[in-house]
Amino acid sequence: MVLDEDYRILHVGDPMVREHVGRNLWEAFPHSRPLFEPYYDQARRTGEPVEFVQFYAGYVARIRAVPMGTQLHLFWEHLDRIDTLTLEGLRDSIAHALAIVEEQEADLRREQARTRLRVVDADST
Fold it and tell me: Is the model's pTM score more than 0.70?
């Protein structure tokens, strides 16, 4: 998804949400503003990508907000669906989602360590 400086949706990659192109993000996705805006604002303010995990509309998603000029590019990866039908289903689905997030965090730390090692290795030659 691509947003302009006023949080208007300029482009979406997901055909399921194409009807929202041209709309304000906060109007298209009610109640999402307090969950996402602080991260999006941080990306705009710092000029650096921001990555975070958020629960919204029954899903757990990893979101990467990348500022590009006046636009903000959002990359969503749905990690899991949260089962809210029963307490047991809720507990199990949250545990499963947390396990996925922890596994991805471990993978990211390993990749960052490999990158640092390559840089050290390249400098030592």
Answer: yes
